[in-house]
Amino acid sequence: MIPQVKIQKELGLFKEHKVDSKSCGPLANNYARYPVEFEKGEGVHLFDTDGKQYLDFLSGIAVTGLGHNHPMINEAVTDQLNKLWHVSNLFEASQQELLAQKLVEKSGLHSVFFCNSGTEANEAAIKFARKWGNDRSKILTAVGGFHGRTMGSLSATAQFKTWEGFTPLLPGFNYIPFNDIENIEYSIDENTIAIMVEPIQGESGVIIPDEGYLKSLREICEEHNLLLIIDEIQTGIGRTGKFFAHQWDEIKPDIITVAKGIANGIPLGATIVSEKVAEIITPGCHGSTFGGNPLAIAAANVVVDLVDENLLEKVNESATLLEKSIHLIFTNKIKEIRCKGLMVGIEFVNRVSAKEIAKMLLNKGIVVGTSGDSVLRLLPPLIISKNDIIEFTVIFEKVLQQI
Ligand SMILES: Cc1ncc(COP(=O)(O)O)c(C=O)c1O
Distance (Å, rounded) from C-alpha 201 to C-alpha 340? Predict the structure, then answer.
């Protein structure tokens, strides 16, 4: 227990946070927020405004993979903060080049465009694919996939609920079943330029395709002269135990998009392209005022170095332990457990609400996420320890007994 809480408890002043919904006041009403505000983070822990400590099993939705308040990232960003914040992309940028070189080495691709978010990384991917396609323009994306909220990425997102109220969508997208190779060829015609998928569908509840799915997509793309675009925005930067999740299938995409974890919480997105895509990118064809901002680049240069083979090995060990631990406390309220690295979806049977379970866990000091009504989503920091996993499991078991 942290000292503030101990003293408050002794004085009888401690207010236990009860998680309930609350009005958003002057903020736009587009988020259903939990009524808890965090004001500090340290490693895998968060502290709310009452000083209560929480174990972070969400990482800001797969963003703060290296934990909060990381000394090396802080130092790099603080150094940059004291030197220069912004000059625009009209000038040379050696730190962007350095980061691009690291991403090129990690991916085996050719070059990198920097932006500020996942949806922007996908917008760039869609635009580059269209430019590469010349007079062809159709992109196939998978049902249940999520690619972002701006119009291009939203149109690529084959989830009806995200479209409601925002149609007409951008033309040029066709939707194919996820993890289904057999029927793809029916959707490919002379106007098709690309297939775009997540290696694991995160927002849809951690839907893991069969081994070899991406390899088959790669082969289909070769056969029909299509680009393979892999959205690694949630799965990339070590989340699944490889630097990129598609590396489990040993394939090389034509375009990879990343964001979320790349700068551990400072907004940054990147669209990594192969040589044949790089050839169509010319000055003025696309851009972003803030893309590749020096602060974000400073953070990302440290993050990419830290997500090395040692850390990936640790992620895989932690992932095995977490999966085993959840199976140990399996109850008939759980329908399915889906795990790939530190990306976990726990699907409950119909009558159990994942949101209620997330609220119960939050009240007990564990931060988790949900997907839809029935899936609890765990995205713990890549640096979690055995003890953190045990702590989570003990509390989760108690919550499961209460429902
Ligand atoms: C796979 C995937 N693509 C794209 C996005 C959009 O990223 P952003 O919210 O940074 O625009 C997300 C966000 O959840 C995502 O999970």
Answer: 11
Mean pLDDT calculated for residue range 68-91: 98
- What's the 148 CA to ligand 1 centre distance in angstroms? 5
Report the CATH fold assignment for 3-66+309-402.
Answer: Aspartate Aminotransferase, domain 1 (3.90.1150)
Question: How far is Cα 156 from Cα 150, in angstroms, rounded to an integer?
Answer: 10
- Cβ of 144 less than 6 Å from ligand 1: no
Which amino acid appears at position 86 of this protein? H
Counting Cα atoms < 13 Å in the Cβ hemisphere of 149 gives 7
pTM over 0.90: yes
Backbone angles phi, psi at 351, to 5 degrees: -75, -5
* Nearest CA, atom 10, ligand 1: 118
Give 339-351 pLDDT, tens digit per residue.
999 999 999 998 8
Number of other residues whose CB lies within 10 A of the CB of residue 81:
13
Is-catalytic flag, 160?
no
d(C-alpha 174, C-alpha 158), whole Å: 9
- What is the second-level CATH architecture of the domain 71-306? 3-Layer(aba) Sandwich (3.40)
- Could you identify the atom of ligand 1 that is nearest to the CA of residue 198? 1
Domain with CATH 3.40.640.10 in the chain: 71-306
Q: For the ranges 17-26, 249-258, 382-391, which has the lowest average pLDDT? A: 17-26
Is the pLDDT assigned to residue 8 strictly greater than 50?
no
CATH 3.90.1150.10-classified regions of the chain: 3-66+309-402
Q: Does ligand 1 lie within 6 Å of residue 259's CB atom? A: yes
Q: What gap in Å lies between CA 125 and CA 23, rounded to an integer?
A: 37
Name the nearest CA neighbour of 229 among 320, 102, 107.
107
Q: What is the pLDDT of residues 280-323, one digit of tens each?
A: 999 999 999 999 999 999 999 999 999 999 999 999 999 999 99
CA separation for the pair 37, 239 (Å, rounded): 26
User: DSSP 3-state assignment of 212?
Assistant: coil
pLDDT at 10 over 80: no
Cα–Cα distance, 25 to 284 (Å, whole number): 41
To test the pocket of ligand 1, the residue of 58, 63, 115, 119 to mutate (highest count of ligand atoms within 8 Å of its CB) is 119
- Residue 34's CB is within 10 A of a number of other CB atoms, namely 17
